[in-house]
Specification:
Blueprint (H helix, E strand, L loop, with lengths): L10 E6 L7 H8 L6 E8 L5 H8 L4 E3 L6 H13 L5 E4 L8 H6 L4 E5 L11 H8 L3 E8 L9 E8 L6 H26 L2 E3 L2 E3 L2
Parallel strand pairs: 1-2, 1-4, 2-3, 4-5
Antiparallel strand pairs: 5-6, 6-7, 8-9
Helix pairs in contact: 1-6
The structure holds glycinamide ribonucleotide.
């Protein structure tokens, strides 16, 4: 599967986030420069009070909120339709704390990326930083991957290691990991959109 190609109009991304959006902010900032060659078409959240929504509004980016209701399948289809309405080349989850369902995954297969604050396949799930710290690793980090049907199991695109310091707690380590995530997202997502990428089995090639 090959991603967006080099020519034509700037490529479009939709960003999904549930929290403060401090990692997503790096992409908003990068895209403010036309030379980056990427348009943030919209920012979506499952939470109306997410800081990510405020950050998008401040940047003049369209926003939408899709709260999860009692009907998970309807939420999944609704989210897919909403995201699709912005015609994204890529959908990037930056702190979106929901698992997309089958309809969403089918619609955006190979075009839905997630950033995770651990070096996968170690420490998947909701508490990657805490789990890595409790395990006692000396090298933590972050992973950008193509989302598949599992929990943080998709093909790896990029990884950055972050050393664990002796006096780290979950918060201090996560902040340094987020610094690495911001740089990883801006660099990798930008190159994927401007130059294309290829997913062959578990191998992702970005020029
Ligand atoms: C980021 O570290 C992201 O990798 C993580 O949430 C943080 C969002 O921070 N995502 C996950 O843990 C998903 N499993 P932010 O709200 O400050 O951008």
């Amino acid at each position: 599967m090959t991603g967006p190609e080099q020519h034509g109009a700037p490529k479009r991304i939709v960003l999904l986030a549930s929290g403060s959006g401090s990692t997503l902010q790096a992409l908003l900032d990068a895209a403010a420069d036309p030379a980056y060659g990427v348009v943030i078409a919209a920012v979506g959240s499952d939470r109306p009070t997410a800081g990510a929504i405020d950050r998008a509004r401040a940047a003049g980016v369209p926003t939408f909120v899709a709260p999860v209701g009692s009907d998970r399948d309807a939420w999944d289809v609704g989210l897919a339709d909403r995201v699709d309405s912005y015609a994204p080349d890529l959908v990037v989850s930056a702190g979106f704390m929901r698992l997309a369902g089958p309809a969403f995954l089918a619609r955006f297969a190979g075009r839905f990326l997630n950033s995770h604050p651990a070096l996968l396949p170690s420490f998947p799930g909701m508490h990657g930083v805490r789990d890595a710290l409790e395990y006692g690793v000396r090298l933590a980090g972050c992973t950008l991957f193509v989302v598949d049907g599992g929990v943080d199991t998709g093909p790896v695109i990029a990884q950055v290691g972050v050393p664990v310091l002796d006096d780290d707690d979950e918060s201090t380590l996560h902040e340094r990991i987020k610094d690495a995530e911001r740089a990883m997202l801006v660099d990798t997502v930008g190159r994927m959109l401007r130059e294309g990428y290829r997913v062959t089995g578990r191998k992702v090639t970005v020029p």
